[in-house]
Design goal:
Helix content: 55-70%
Number of strands: 0
Structural class: mainly alpha
Number of helices: 4
Radius of gyration: 15 Å
Strand content: under 5%
Distance between the termini: 34 Å
Order of helices and strands: HHHH
Largest sheet: none
């Protein structure tokens, strides 16, 4: 169900003709849709939804390849 909500976010912005300037902003929008759904309709699932981001945020920046916006998604 949660994946479906994320994918519905893609459908929503595509149907509305919204074009995000960066791919990561598109995914951020869809994840925000997902987080809003869970917070409103399934608040008991929030700890599961927030577990992965909490673990990733604990990784030191020098351990990841992309640690700033300049290298995250270069302009094509």
């Amino acid at each position: 169900m949660l994946l479906a909500v994320h994918e519905m976010g893609h459908g929503f912005h595509q149907a509305g003709g919204v074009r995000f300037p960066r791919l990561w902003l598109t995914e951020f929008f869809c994840n925000l849709c997902l987080h809003t759904y869970v917070a409103e309709d399934e608040p008991g699932a929030l700890p599961m939804l927030e577990a992965f981001p909490a673990a990733i945020s604990a990784v030191p920046p020098e351990r990841v390849q992309y640690s700033n916006l300049a290298t995250f998604e270069p302009y094509s």
